[in-house]
Specification:
single chain; 121 residues; alpha+beta; Aspartate Aminotransferase, domain 1; 5-stranded antiparallel β-sheet; 5 strands; 31% helix; globular
Length: 121
């Protein structure tokens, strides 16, 4: 869906407002929890790395936005069933949001924190 973007800002600028808002929220949470995170465009979408490990990716699709917990999503305790995609994967998990769907920012922050904690085990 996206054309080639050189920066995360360029990527976000090209999106409809609801997608931009969803992805901007995820981005702000990642930066809040992991101040040293590095964001780049890889595979045409924004990704977040720490110590050269790919942690997260985010993307906009026609009908939804996606937050990927790439490195260890399957290991994160998600008792509230926040993850709703990639549930069959042994490693990653994802959160898909469609237009009009809400996002619990506090729970998202908790999941990002748990992801970082898993890296340090």
């Amino acid at each position: 869906m996206q054309s080639e973007s050189n920066t995360v800002e360029d990527y976000l600028k090209s999106l409809p407002q609801w997608q931009k808002a969803n992805l901007s929220l995820f981005r702000s949470v990642v930066h809040k929890i992991i101040p040293d995170v590095i964001e780049v465009i890889k595979w045409g979408v924004p990704v977040f790395t720490l110590n050269k490990k790919l942690l997260f990716a985010m993307a906009a699709f026609k009908e939804h936005t996606k937050f990927n917990f790439i490195q260890n999503g399957a290991l994160i305790d998600d008792a509230n069933k926040f993850f709703n995609n990639g549930l069959e994967s042994r490693k990653s998990r994802a959160i898909d949001l469609r237009q009009g769907e809400g996002l619990d920012k506090a729970m998202l922050e908790t999941l990002v924190k748990r992801s970082v904690e898993q890296l340090n085990k």
